[in-house]
Input
Amino acid sequence: MPYNLTTLENGCRELGIELSQKQKNQFIQFYEFLVEKNKVMNLTGITEFEEVLTKHFLDSLACVKAIDMTKVKTIMDIGTGAGFPGVPLKIAFPHLEACLLDSLKKRVNFLEESFELLGLEGIKAIHGRAEEYAKNKEYREKYDLCVSRAVSNLATLSEYCLPYVKTGGTFMFEKIFHLKENHTDVKTEVMAGITTFMTMAYILAVNPSILSASGMDANAVLIATSLASFVGTALMALLANYPFALAPGMGLNAYFAYTVVLTMGYSWQLALMAVFVEGIIFIVLSLTNVREGIFNAIPMTLKSAVSVGIGLFVAFVGLQNAKLIVNSDSTLVTYQHFKGETFSSVGVGAILALLGVVITAILLVKHVKGGILYGILITWVLGIVCELTGIYIPNPDAGMYSVIPTSFVSFDFSALGKTFGQVFKTDFSGVGILNFFAVMFSFLFVDLFDTLGTLIGVASKADMLDEEGKLPHIKGALMADSIATCAGAVLGTSTTTTFVESASGVTEGGRTGLTAMTTGILFLLATIFSPLFLTIPSFATAPALIIVGFYMMGSAVKIDFNDPSEGIPAFLTILAMPTAYSISEGIAIGVISWTIINVVTGKAKEKKISPLMYVLTVLFILKYVFL
Output
């Protein structure tokens, strides 16, 4: 043969393709087809193609004068049929790439002068073939590789052709978020992002309600919450490419309003300044790898336990949101009593939440894509039906509001001016520097370990941790969290942190930053569509949180409960999170117990306890002593 078959075979081995004799014969037939049927690539007025091609295969330096793009489809058909669609032309024909580029350099005005010869039909052929393969996952990657390698090196043509090569995903999204590398697609990521948003949307109602107790304007806080969530989540998508969403953290907002402002008597502007300084410190800690070092120092057993603990915590939050679990003065918590004056509001909502759990479970058992999201929407629709028929009666005093949207959009953003930039107008008179840093450190401590705990738990669920329990690109995730905290303080809201509800999107298949970006955009849209989003009842999102708790329980199998030195600290971590209602408390108890048990029993060397674990243990103990 007039081309180097050895080069072809070596190139195929590099791609992981082993050519059989049958495939070699098919490739020979392909070459003979091109030589004998030169009309396949023959441009009008050019008859030298066969001669040029033959000379090229004989290592001639002659260059192909032009190639008819309408025949790319035909070449791809033959290549795929021959069984080696992944073989780039430059490997099969060693000098073809150089010839093509040289030819194109000589024809600077090729596109303008020869558009008709390029042929819209050729573009349609590529597009049509891609659409056909897009329906078949088995051939999708093969076709993508074949077309991209055959066309991408044609520098002048690639800009025009590649946008038409569609293989089941958007080229821009693939380039930014690496969907194929993470075994996902645009539809899955978008559905996951919507699911995450739906389970987090309650923060748009709850955060203004809590922070307004400190004297802040509720409408301003709503807009600030939406914008801070968008900024943080978008940064998570772009800096780390993770499906984690951020918003002003629950617990931290309560500490902000009820402790710092109402109990300690400080202004909400001072509280915002404490949040802002905390964010600056976090940026420094993230740049110096301190936060990453803490993440990596926590042993795998505790990381698995954190995932399970967060699952129970999230499920418990879901039960509370549905009002299936309520307060009890004698036992702290109890189940909902489906009778009494509030049955038509609280009781019906709790029943609808139970139906939502069953509906979501059925959808997931049936492998319905987006089952969790559909579960939320179906439960919401059932709530609307119940309200229209008089079965469900809103009762604001019991925290049960109308589930029927009365309006859809609002373009009034003027309220934001009441909180935006107020952090820089803080009056420090009468505030001791030690008191200020005590407040700031409290924010910093809780946010630090809440964020790390959430990253550990959700990343474990998504199988993103490597063999050593480390999270790749964690610096980007921590930077997103840090910058978002500063941005949130400037906008006018409490500490912005990674939300554990991100697990709902991960459960739906979200694996990249496209999930986070979808959630972030929805938060941005919430500034306009807030009346609609605020109508979603908590009993509709509660089933999603309960089901997510179930999914996160899977990490329990990674814990060696047969070894008490591993199992007991893990158990205490799991137990503390829902009962103390705090992710950071669970981590603290887990770290303290794991270190002390293994040191006292002489297993410190065996477990290779890092110096940072000793430091964390001491800090956690001091925290309980002094804070």
